[in-house]
Each structure stands twice: as structure tokens, then as C-alpha cells.
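Changelog-linked ticket: WQD example.
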Amino acid sequence: MRVLVAGGAGYIGSHTVVRLLQHGDDVVIADNFSNSSPLVVDRLRRITGRPVKVEEIDLTDTADTKALMRNAKPDAVIHFAGLKAVGESVTNPGSYYSVNLRSTLSLLAAMQEAGVYCLVFSSSATVYGMNPPVPTPEDSPTSATNPYGWTKVMGEQILTDIAASHPQWRIGLLRYFNPGGAHPCGAIGEDPLGVPNNVLPYISQVAIGRRDYLSVFGDDYDTPDGTGVRDFIHVDDLAEGHVAALHRLTTMPRSLDVWNLGTGRGTSVLELRAAFEAASGRPIPYRVTARRPGDVARSLALVTKAERELGWRAQRGLLEMCQDAWRWQSQNPDGYR
Ligand code: WQD
């Protein structure tokens, strides 16, 4: 299969490209490198020994996106491209709505024009809002607590309406829980710009000495050690989930479906810190600070639907995730810079 990977130079995109290439699919990456490095592409070629085409493009430009789709002639599209920092979305909501929704609309218009009807969309567990049942099934109501989250809820709604309008569409919405880790070779990984928003890259930067200590946002939650509990999933498990979803689309009876990608297992912030200390052999000092507004006590995926329908389940454990994240961080202390 020939797959156009929008945002394929980013963290989850690049790991998915490796899995697609290893699976024998051909890949065209479309990226504007706004939050990723062109260096990724050579590393993907090196890891897989396979060619990867790259198009530098702003997907909010519909004419350019249509031209790309005509030239690339993919069988399917995976759409990772978008802005993803929750805090930044609160201070700059206009650009989040503009970039995330316009890129999705552009891709859809270009796909429709080119007669490409298979799409896998990067969504997020953030669409479950503040009070979902835990573990959370896919049919829980959706809502959001910040503009970034709303762009995912709205993106899902647009895709749901498009899929209903035309029976030829095959669209898979993948709701990621908390991705972490890196490819075990250490050549690609997460490279956040500025101060990391997420706990795992933050811990990793403390271990390498770029940050002094981890701020633990609250230890008075109703959880075993009082700190937030999350469903951390290895990025390579997530990548394999995309390959499984893509191939499910070809036999799917409905025009749209949705799957959680998580492990179903919970890890607290302090447990994660301890696992990273064990994996890295480095101390991770921490201080407990106030709760972060908008955080929930626990977030866990119900994973049975993906297991049943995609034949996929996460294989890798917490320690492996921390070891792989550490290999990437220690071999690339400044990321791709
Ligand atoms: C996890 C836990 C924090 C940082 C976010 C987005 C979500 C999704 C994934 C994309 C919480 C605690 C964090 C720190 C801490 N992104 N924490 N110190 O909030 O579950 O999900 O990323 O779709 O949309 O909201 O992940 O890694 O930010 O936080 O103590 O410096 O770590 O309070 O309990 P979260 P996170």
C-alpha cells in the first residue's frame, strides 16, 4: 500500500513511518517541519534501509495539498499533522483552530478530489473530557477542557459527518492515551521545543541534566500514592496500532470507526519517576507542587475494542519504555539539534 503520512517527521509520525516501511508499505511524508526536524528523514532511511519520499508543505494550503495528493497518488492517508501543546492552545487558540482544522479540511478536500477514501486520524484521549468512566470505552461522550482538545473533538466531528455523507469513505479515529519511549535503536525519539509539557520528556531532561528537578503536580489525588495515574503507551506499540488500523480499514463494514490505543494499565507520576531512575541509573529529584488545572486523577483506556477489531494490543512495558526513552535522550542530549 502507498501511504501519505501527514506530519510524518514528528514524534508519533516518524515511529509509524518505520513500522509502515518495515511492513512493506511505501511512504510519502508531508510535513512543514514546524515542530520536527528534516534530519528525521535520513534516520528513517538508515533504520529501515528503504526509500522515503518527503514533501515540505503547509497543509493549510488547500491548492498545494491537492497538488501533492495528485502527485503522490496514495492508497491511504494517516493524518498526524497539527499543533499539540495544551498550554499554548490556551494562550493562542486562534492558531490551534486554524492549523488543526484547516489542515484536516484541506486533506479531506484533496483526498475527495483524488478519489482517495482511506484515512487514519490522530486523535487523543483528551476528547473524553473531565469525568469519563475509567477505564474509558470508546462510546463515552466527548468534550474538551482546552482549545487543543476541542480541535480534536471538532476534527472527529468533521470526519464523522464526512464519512456519513459518502459510503465510500473508510476512516479510523485513533485515540491515544499517553505516548512515551522511542525506537530501541536510539536514532529517533521525542524532541520537544522549549520546556516539555508532558511528564515523560520532562523527566528525561531532568535525567540528562537539562532541568534541575521534576515538579510533581499534586500528590493529593484519590490514587494509591496521591499523584496522577496515566496509561503510558510505548510509541512503537502506538505505531503498530496505526498499521493495524490502516489494514482494518480495507475490510471495515462501516465508513468510520474509533479505537483507543492504550495499555489499560495505570502508572502514577511517582512510579514513572522511579522506573526512569531504574532505567537511566540517574537520580530524578522532584518537588511536589500545586495541581495543574484541568488534570484528572486517573486516565486509562479500555482496550478490548482494539484487541477484538484490530487484532492489536500493546506489547511493551513501562521499564522498556523508559529504557528506550533514555537511550534516545542519552545518545541525543539536545534532540535533533
Ligand atoms: C501526565 C501526568 C500531570 C508534567 C497530555 C494532554 C493530552 C495528550 C497527552 C495529546 C499528570 C503530571 C506532568 C509535569 C507532572 N496529548 N505531570 N509534572 O495531561 O495526561 O495528557 O498529553 O493528545 O491531550 O493533555 O499528560 O504528561 O502532561 O501529564 O507531575 O511536569 O503527569 O499532572 O498527572 P496528560 P502529561
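Closing comment: Example verified and attached. The first helix runs from residue 11 to 23. The chain has a mean pLDDT of 97.
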